[in-house]
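B., you asked whether I could sanity-check this one before it goes into the benchmark set. Here's the sequence:
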Amino acid sequence: MTFMNKRKYGITSRDYAYAIELFRQIPLDHREEKNSMFGKKHSKESIEKKNKKSQPYNSINFPQWLKNKLSEKSKGKNNAMFGKTFYDVWVEKYGKDIADKKLEKYKNNKRNKL
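And here's what the prediction gave me:
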C-alpha cells in the first residue's frame, strides 16, 4: 500500500481511498469479532495503575525547599552541560580522532533516517 521514493515510504491518496473502501465492505459484526477488546472496559485498577505510571517527575511529593534546591543546581551555568555540545563531550572522553568518526557516523545515520 506504500510507494518508495529515495528510501522514503508514502501512500497515495488513491491507495488510501481504495483501502478505506475495502474496509467499509467488511461486515461490521466481523470487525467486532476480531477485536479482542470489543464490548469490554478497563478496570478501575488498571486505569489507576496507568495514571500512576505516567505521573511526571515534578508531581513527586518533594518538599518545596528541596524542589527549589534541585532546580537551581541544574539551571543555566550550574548545569554540567552548559555551553557544551555532544561533540565536545566526545572529544573529552575519546579524543579528537574517535570523536570525528563518531560525528561522521551520527551525521550519516541522521541522513539515512530522513
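One thing to flag: Strands lie at 3-5, 8-10. Otherwise nothing jumped out at me.
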